[in-house]
Protein: Aspartate carbamoyltransferase
Amino acid sequence: HRHLLGIEGLTAPEINLLLDTADRYVEQNRGENRVTNKLAGKTIVNLFFENSTRTRTSFELAARRLGADAINMSVDGSSVKKGETLIDTALTLNAMHLDALVVRHQESGAPKLLASKVNCAVINAGDGQHEHPTQALLDALTIRRRLGTLKGLTVAICGDILHSRVARSNIHLLNIMGANVRVVAPPTLLPGAVDRMGVEVHHSMATGLKDADIVMMLRLQLERMQGQFLPSQREYFRFFGLDYDKLSVAKPGALIMHPGPMNRGVEIDSLVADDIHRSVILQQVELGVAVRMACLDLLTAAPKAA
Ligand code: CP
Structure:
């Protein structure tokens, strides 16, 4: 089985195939006949060890719209609470003959470990601070549908880069597709290896957003900051929160993105987040269903005879 464990290592043609396939599902999702039987008889399990609104719901919708059976396994109600290990949980689910296992886990590398133990496709729905590949794909589809291409665009990814698997997956994808990537953050919210990530590093919104085509804001992940430097939220907003004043140096009409969930008034001002012309935050959510349909379709469909 093929898996989707991260964007790192994918090629531009593979990313284009996923995006082209997703593109075809966008119109279907908007129409009356949203449900097809393309994956009828397939079984997909969502195994989420961390909270989620967008990713879990959209994987479930994606599976159902392709005619597959989708099961959400709640960790709270499972035998994980009785001490069953991650591997035993996976082997148990595997014995029920799944076609895909969608995994979100707080530890980086958990989906890869599972992929080595099960017979079905494993899709990473976010692992620790490592990757969130379907988020980067839906971000790419959103950009491509609005601006036609990713190549040559300047994308400023702003905020808590240190804790962000979304930033990591987007940096990989944007570099593979030929965009210019900037990260904009205080030094305390950048990973030590940032110099080896193929990005331009900025410590101020004034230089980081200058002439940017896309401004991608990230949530300040306060829950991952225990014991570390915890910025004052008001101070953080003053220097790194996106408002119209800071946005004014970007290209006219620059798109505003955020993977969600947002901390309004911390990393983004509500007026900017709700700007109906420039904010594409809800389009990102919409296209997330199509991207997850493409992933399930391409990873679980029967291999074509040679
Ligand atoms: N963007 C994202 O992954 O959101 P959820 O945590 O709600 O799935």
Q: What stands out?
A: The first helix runs from residue 12 to 30.
